[in-house]
Amino acid sequence: MSTEPTKPKSGAEVSSTQKGASGTHGSLPDAKPSASEDIAAFVAKARAMSPHAAGARGRLVFALDATMSRQPTWDMACALQADMFREAAALGSLDIRLVYYRGLNECRATGWIADSAQLAKLMAKIDCRGGNTQIGKVLSEARREAVASAVRAVVFVGDAMEENVDHLCAKAGELGLLKVPVFMFQEGHDAVAEQAFREIARLTGGAWCRFDPGAAAQLRELLRAAAAYAAGGREALFRLSKTGSGAAKLLGQMK
To answer: What is the CA radius of gyration of the chain?
Structure first.
């Protein structure tokens, strides 16, 4: 399967073009800091979700805001994404579909990627560009993939929301009916984004969590926890919380 970003022609169809051995390209359709408490709440919420069979392959949509303000976090995510694969490896395996938006109406998705080095190489080729948010397209793509390939979870990392929140909530509700939780990881303290992200998480049965700008350790814990859920459900998160790293460290600090 191709791994370079693809550009679907509509919300119901993805059209990709072969690009050598590496894959295909195409676009998608149309307070006060409390990071530690938010992360603990995320882990607790994820642990309460329905488990998946241990050892089964997990599929996770990994969505990132790649507008200009996101460059530092994009670079950080590039460095941390291998942790998701490593976490899932102990439970079975993980396939990730990267979705990102940037610039003027550009929203792209890769094929399913099962290798961290391959994903890192791909992400390193992508630079952030100025533009407005396109979270609606991310949710539409997640729904399409949920129907087509049994997506277990969606992770979104961003810091802003510039769309009609009711339209986003309608799309989130569809994912909720499909039992696909969306984990909304917010960088910073934008109140408008927080309100929308919390509601998307609630409607999908997912979780909202804030991390501090540039806080690699916080984002790492969130990504590892999301990968554990995608690969093994709540039981995997419970086991993760009993180890000496990841969720266990966070839970121990918050008790």
So the answer is: 16
Q: What is the pLDDT of residue 99?
A: 97
Q: What is the pLDDT of residue 10?
A: 42
CATH architecture of structural domain 28-254: 3-Layer(aba) Sandwich (3.40)
- The residues, any chain, with a CB within 8 Å of residue 225's CB and separated by 6 or more, are 42, 43, 46, 237, 240, 246, 247
Token pair 């949509």 in the structure block, residue = 61
Among 195, 121, 189, which Cα is nearest to 159's? Answer: 189
- Cα dihedral value 83, 85, 89, 90, nearest 10: 30
Report whether 23 contacts 121 (CB < 8 A). no
Tokens representing 238 are 């419970």
First to last CA, the chain: 44
Residue 138 φ then ψ, to 5°: -60, -45
Domain borders along the chain are: 28-254
Q: Report the C-alpha gap between 54 and 178 in whole angstroms.
A: 21
Non-local (6+) Cβ contacts of 135 within 8 A are 156, 158, 161, 163, 168, 196, 200
Give me the residue label for tokens 């997912």.
Answer: 206
**Segments in the chain below pLDDT 70:** 1-35, 39-56, 234, 237, 241-255
Distance CA(237)–CA(218), nearest Å, equals: 16
